[in-house]
């Protein structure tokens, strides 16, 4: 499992040139957004996806104890940040965790 390096860059800030070994691959607009996206519950969900390898959202909902609409909304948001891949196959969607380890780079 690949470790994602995450950073914070406000949307109105110019593109900062970051050099070095720990260049963020995922950017969040604020610390509050980072905290919401990488909350304990969401990180537990990513670990569950990686370990159980559910074939459908319904299967993941049963494993996690969450409702499918709530789970779908969370996973689509995480997909937007590149943390999850959602593969559609006919009427089913298969979630895949792309990362479960994170390194947060601040200033």
List the defining traits of the structure above:
Arc Repressor Mutant, subunit A; three-stranded parallel sheet; 4 helices
> Which architecture per CATH?
Orthogonal Bundle
CATH superfamily: Winged helix-like DNA-binding domain superfamily/Winged helix DNA-binding domain
Instruction: Characterize the biggest β-sheet.
Output: 3 strands, parallel
Instruction: Tally the structural domains.
Output: 1
> Count of helical segments?
4
Estimated share of beta-strand residues: 25-35%
Helical amount: 25-40%
Q: How many beta-strand segments? A: 5
**CATH hierarchy class name:** Mainly Alpha
Low-confidence stretches: none
> Could you please say which CATH topology applies here?
Arc Repressor Mutant, subunit A
What is Rg?
15 Å
Mean pLDDT: 87
Global structural class: alpha/beta
Distance between the termini: 26 Å
Shape: elongated
Give the strand order, joined by hyphens, for the main sheet: 2-1-5
Overview of the structural elements:
This protein is α/β, with parallel strands linked by helices and 107 residues long. It has one domain: Arc Repressor Mutant, subunit A. The protein has helices at 31-37, 40-52, 57-64, 68-80; strands at residues 2-8, 26-28, 84-89, 92-97, 99-105. A 3-stranded parallel β-sheet has the order 2-1-5. A two-stranded antiparallel ribbon has the order 3-4. A hairpin with a 2-residue loop joins strand 3 and strand 4. The radius of gyration is 15 Å and the shape is elongated. The mean pLDDT is 87.
